[in-house]
Every structure is written in C-alpha cells, then in structure tokens.
Amino acid sequence: EIPKRDWSSDVCSSDLTVTETVYTGSKVTLKATADGTTPITFYWYKNGTFIGVSDSMVFDKIGLTDAGTYTVTAKNIAGEANSDPLMIVVITPSQPSNVKITIIKG
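Structure (tokenized):
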C-alpha cells in the first residue's frame, strides 16, 4: 500500500529544503537510504505526487520537466518515516559568449 503524505503536518521552510542545480541532459541519480529493520521499501514523490517505488530514481538524461521537489517515504513493518525535501532545478547550459582576445606584451 502506498503511504499517503499528509502535507499539512510537514514543516515547509526553505531552510529545510536542499536545492541542487543540474544541466539538461545530465545523468542524475537520487538514492534513498534509511536505518531500521529490513526490508525497507522506498516510496518516491515529486511535488507531492507519488511517482514510484525503488531505492533510487535514475534520470539518464534529465530534462526541464524533471525539475521539482522530491521526497521519499521509507516504510517497514514498524512504521514509516519521511525524508526532507530535495529541490532539483534543471537549467539549460549556455554557449560561450562575449569572447575576446587580449594582447599581453612582454
């Protein structure tokens, strides 16, 4: 059974959210770990919406639509616990600009 996230009880603060910026086309892996009695099942959420069950999320070529806030819920026979949010910002790399040549004498 997929754990339901009760977002009303979560503390929302930019101080608690880790932000990572990555370039489009990069390979990105999000890895979940937790302490506790095994087996532990990991439930992934993007912007509060359930997206999958796995200990990792792999983006072979991350795109602009993959940007968002990710959380994971770890669940075992004793209960469940939630991660702090991870915000992924995806940007498009820019080509070089304003290229100049400088003469150095001596």
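The chain has no helices and eight strands. The CA atoms of residues 99 and 105 lie 20 Å apart.
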